[in-house]
Amino acid sequence: MKSIKYIPFFLMLCSFFACNNSAKKSLATAGNKDTSTSCMMVPSRFAGTSSDSALKFNGDTSTKGMVLIKGGTFMMGGDNLQAGADEYPKHKVQVSGFWMDATEVTNAQFQKFVEATHYITTAEKKPDWDEMKQTLPPGTPQPPDSMLVAASLVFHQTSGPVDLRDYSQWWSWVKGADWKHPEGPNSNIKGKENYPVVQVSWYDAMAYCKWMGKRLPTEAEWEFAARGGLQNEIYPWGNEPINEGKPKANSWGGKFPYYNDDKDGFVGLAPVKSFPANGYQLYDMAGNVWEWCSDWYDANYYQSFENSVALNPKGPAKSNDPMDPYTPKRSLRGGSFLCNDSYCSGDRVARRMKSSPDTGLEHTGFRCVRDGKLNRNLN
């Protein structure tokens, strides 16, 4: 009996992805054609702790590399039949003006932060079992010490079609994978200074933002910015499907996860600004990397605004993920180079994703926003 209980956890720790079919059905809606309700069943390794307490703002108050988003009112939520249940109901939101990074934070920018602060990312630390088990079902057995090592999640293309409900087919827990070695210890970021930094947890993103005197965007700010001034459109560029016409974003073309047609010119990450900006001159608001937001993830959060206007919503007070109630989750937006329109449709501006805040992945990064007066020095 003990071995039967151990197998699911071992697979979860090794592959980190196993969607529960019954949970999927609970989130399904009549209009939802998305068969890939993406759930990250990732145990929280550090139980909400962070190592940025000693970090201080570096004093740079410029808005160089940022774009002024003047704010306004928009309809937030799903725009088409691919929308998930957590994107409904569509509701009116008002956001105040803010500055947003024009691109994702790059390897060069993150390296400057690490060199100045000697910050150690989550992926570079050994998981603490005593803290980790607090976010797992009671009685979950401890995995072998060989699994409790500094590591992160790395994508590997499969040799053929696989069950898309089983994420272990294309994700692996790789020892030595981190932001400097995004594909494992034999990889590096030399020559990729202008690529988005990846393998960073929510805590890592928050630490960088703190040092820069910035913060992560809320989901509402992120979606408003991603729409680029458009209303009720599916993508940052409008309604043309991502795989039609000229390449518009770095995504997975072909058959996921075994055949990428490379029509967009990339089979993995792309340098920032490789594709046209949206109406607000923001780059990669669809594709390339999923981007951390500040909010806790709550599958039912939008229901609280069904009959009202949400004013600068900051997200729910706590996490609520029916698919994995034991693990608190933070929200991510934007899709990634692994998103396929027929699979996860992550490139849609309304698409929501979630993950435990201590999780790093090969397709996850972030960008920052800044409050304050709207006449900051642009140089």
Characterise the protein shown here.
With 379 residues, the protein is of the alpha+beta class. It has one domain (1-379): paralog of FGE (formylglycine-generating enzyme), CATH 3.90.1580.10. The protein contains six helices and 14 strands. It has a four-stranded mixed sheet with strand order 12-11-9-13. Strands 1-4-14 form a three-stranded antiparallel sheet, with no helix packed on it. The chain is globular, with a radius of gyration of 20 Å. The termini are far apart. Mean pLDDT is 86; it is low at 1-48 and 375-379.
Describe the structure concisely for a colleague.
The chain has helices at residues 2-15, 21-27, 107-117, 129-132, 202-212, 219-227, and strands at 66-69, 72-76, 91-95, 98-101, 151-155, 171-175, 254-255, 259-260, 290-296, 310-311, 330-333, 353-355, 364-365, 369-370.
